[in-house]
Amino acid sequence: MTSGNITLTIIKPDAFTSGKAGKIIAHLEAEGYAVRAARVMRLTEAQAGEFYAVHRERPFYKSLVSFMTSGTCMPMVLEKAGAVAALRKSIGATDPKEADAGTVRKLYAESKERNAIHASDSDENAARESRFFFSEAELIAAK
Ligand code: ATP
Ligand code: MG
Question: pLDDT tens for residues 82-115?
Fold first, then answer.
């Protein structure tokens, strides 16, 4: 994995189960991201709880874990120069009401919780989160 050029995204259950995965991937590819690994899966409570463990003390944590386990989602490793910062910009603010026009969340998110997509917030977390979902063999295309 070339650090600095990959990031981990998840098309969240609100977007996946309402049939928006294809549109979101097309949107990201048009912005220059390449899909290097992808999986279609339903998170267990343990997986969702661990993935968002940093928010364990927050009032929305239980609801977030419940939402993230409510249906199928799609984790993906994306590659682009400066991927982490670029994707944070492409997805927009956490609350779609505050997201810039043309961002994934502005276009496809339902609410601050059901906000269509996750993106890693640092190169370190991008590497950690990629290994959370994908084996070394699956990450070879991202190297
Ligand atoms: P993500 O980590 O999923 O990319 P983010 O970095 O924009 O989102 P975080 O602050 O890390 O936002 O929150 C993680 C997720 O928790 C949000 O994407 C959203 O689904 C949910 N969330 C955050 N704040 C709230 C809130 N105040 N009320 C309800 N849900 C929230
Ligand atoms: Mg976050």
Answer: 999 999 999 999 999 999 999 999 999 999 999 9
- Is the minimum distance from the CB of 118 to ligand 1 under 6 angstroms? yes
For residue 106, give the 3-state DSSP assignment.
Answer: helix
| DSSP category for residue 85 | H
Q: What is the pTM of this model?
A: 0.97
- Measured in whole angstroms, the distance separating CA 75 from the mean position of its chain's CA atoms is 6
Burial of 125 (0-12, 13-18, 19+ CB in 10 A): middle
CA of 111 to the centre of ligand 2 (A): 15
- Looking at ligand 1, which residue's alpha carbon is closest to its atom 4? 118
Closest ligand (CA of 64) = 1
Cβ of 60 less than 6 Å from ligand 1? yes
- In a 3-state reduction of DSSP, which class is residue 74? strand
